Structure formats: structure tokens, C-alpha cells
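Researcher: Next entry in the queue.
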Amino acid sequence: MFSRRYIPAIVSVALLTGCSSKPVVTAKLQNVQNAYQKMISDPNVTEKAPLALFQAGKIYDLSFHAKDKEEANHLSYLLERELEVVKESARKTDLEDRIERLKTEKQKAELEAKETELLLMKKKMEQAEAKLNEMEELNAKQTNRGLVLTLGDVLFETGKATLLPGAQRAIDKLAEFLEENPERKVLIEGYTDNSGSVTYNIDLSLRRAQAVKNALVEKGIDLKRVLAHGYGEAYPIALNDDEAGRQRNRRVEIIILKKGVEPVDMMR
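Model: Structure for this entry, 268 residues:
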């Protein structure tokens, strides 16, 4: 049995022993602590995985208070696990950011492609409008049958189906328009006044319409796109009572049909 006089000495030794004890740090724990220090100095990690890094920091702080080797090993294991979570979190966030950037770049590319397409469409529309204006300068008129260009009697030799040089400008403009609008076809209709026999007038009107068709084919227009027909003295646009009226009736009408319309469907 201890004497009371030894108790203060024992307490003093115990207190000194407790105060002098230091946290246990193993080589493995120190390596993991160093890995954590390296990780928090990486801007990419601190930006991509702040929450996971915060959780790892809690284990990191505890790792400096291990009481024995077993606890040190356990804390090194926990900290190592948390650092893996940080890495994975940073990698996932980085991947999501890359996917988002790719989506943005794709949307931008699609938008630029659409803008380019719109610009091309606008340019084509402007060109088509310019060609229509040129046709209108040739006194072409828009009707329910299509765009109608009329070649008067003065553009043919009298009583013949031979085109005079004055018709060349209209033929050139018409051929150019058809080349730039390959989906549109043409119906060419010849007409005369009431002078002469019905048979003669139908033949002359057909030959004049055919002459215009031949001129377009010579310019490179596919003959399958052009249909010529003669109506003779039918469908007059003026009275045949005087020369002025008869001259108006002696004509060739060139109907530029709308897209998808066949010439045979628009014949009178």
C-alpha cells in the first residue's frame, strides 16, 4: 500500500508525461499530407472542386493529432480517400466544362452556318430580283399564267418567221434568266391578225413561236424546257379594224412559268 506522501510525486510524473507526448506522424501520413498541400496550391483543383477540397481539409487538420501509429495509418487512409474524391470531382467538373464549351462552339458554328446560308439566299434573291427587273424592262408582265414577255410583229420579217436583230437583246436576257432559274420552264405562243386564211395564220404563228424556241435552244436552253404553239388569229388583244390593232395582234408571247409548272398544263 502506497503512502500518501508518494501520491503528489506520481501525479506530477503523470502530468509531465502527458504534456510531453507528441502526435504520431508516419511516413505514409506525411506523404499524404504533402499531397494535400500540393493539391491546394493547384488553381485548377481549388476552382473545380472547392467543396471536396474543403472536406479533405477537415481530415488533413485531424491528421496532425494522431495519438498512435494505428490512428495515424487510419487518418492517412481517410485523407488519401478524400484526395481521390477531390481529383475525381475536379476531373468531372473539367469534363462538364469542356462539354459545355463544345456545345457553345457547336451552336456558334451552326449559327454562323445559318447566317452564311441566309446571306447566300439573300444574294440569290437579290440576283433573281435584278433579273426580274431586267425582264420588266423588256415590258414583261406578271400574270396568273406566269411572267409574260411579248415580242411584237416588228421583230420579225414581214410575213415570215425570221427574227430580226432587234429581237436579240430580248432573247439574250431571256436565255440568261432561264440559265439562272433551271427549275422554270417556258411556253411560247404565236398569234397573228385576221388577215389571210386560218390555216396560213396558224402556220405562221407556229413558225414564229418555233423560231423563238430555236433561238433559246441555240443559247443553251434545254429544248425539253420549252414548248412552242401557234394559235393563229385566236385570242386577239385588240380589234382588227385598223393597222394599229392588227399590228398588236401579230405577236409572240413568251410565258416564263412558275416553278414546277409544266408548259402543257398552261396551254389555252
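Model: Residues 69-137 form the longest helix (69 residues).
Researcher: Noted, moving on.
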